[in-house]
Amino acid sequence: MRILVLGGTGFLGGHLVERLRARPGALVLGGGRSPGADFTVDLASDRPDALARTLASAAPDAVVNCAGATGGDAVTLAEVNARGPAVLCTALREAAPAARLVHLGSAAEYGPGVRGTRVTESAATRPAGPYGATKLAGTIAVTASGLDAVVLRVGNPVGPGAPATGLPGRMAALLRAAGADPEAVLRLGDLSAYRDFVDVRDVARAAELALAAPGPLPPVLNVGAGRAVAVRELVRGLARTAGFRGRIEENAGGSARSAEVSWQCSDITAANEALDWRPSRTLDDALAALWSATAEGSCPHPEGERVL
């Protein structure tokens, strides 16, 4: 099975590539902007006809799109998260219409949740900002493409290689810098929001299962832990793992989106039914692996570039 992974050097993509390369009979091809990519692909700027020629050369049986942007201005987010999947689907219809497409979306597409409630795939989508809105546009492009495609709406991935552009990776870097100093003070924003944290390795396993699942899949599947955890609990858990002896202070600024979206939690029943998938790792497992990977030279996916 020839599998083309786009964005395979990022946080999610790197773990998926590692997993797929251990799969018997799988030939994993990388598509991206890095010099080591098997095929040069930039979904933010490639024309559909040029991308179709690249896809024809790759001749994939399946494509996984892990490319995405979490930061930047609205134009950058739109180019990568909205235009990218639309161009990819157009090119696939021309060059490899039988290939299965697994696209990684985001739980941010749902927008604010109702406290105490798990959101299902049929829920209304009300993204709170440009990131969620552009990811939703990408999802719509995929689900309306007519291809054999599925969108995995991923919660908040945590684990080894988490980029410093997100809170878990940034927190790990701060803790590593603080060391055992009992006078250290970490000043963070409001940590009262609740998120559905899922181990990145479980996300990779869900994508692998989606590639191999027989028959058509539901258009969208939630991939999360199915449990909402206060961001404060994640921060304190990582601090305990690191043996941090200093002090953590909240409300030193923070994300406007976190304030606007105080609760997110995914119902993962459909993924269990369609893929026989449930998360196998706990948040403590993810935090321990993240902390271990921040040791010098042991972080497998350090770029944090154009990832979900």
From TrEMBL:
Ranges where the NAD-dependent epimerase/dehydratase domain occurs: 3-224
Database matches in InterPro entries: Epimerase_deHydtase, NAD(P)-bd_dom_sf
Gene3D superfamilies: NAD(P)-binding Rossmann-like Domain (3.40.50.720)
Highest taxon listed in the record's lineage: Bacteria
Family: Belongs to the NAD(P)-dependent epimerase/dehydratase family.
Protein name: NAD(P)-dependent oxidoreductase
Species this protein is from: Streptomyces gibsoniae
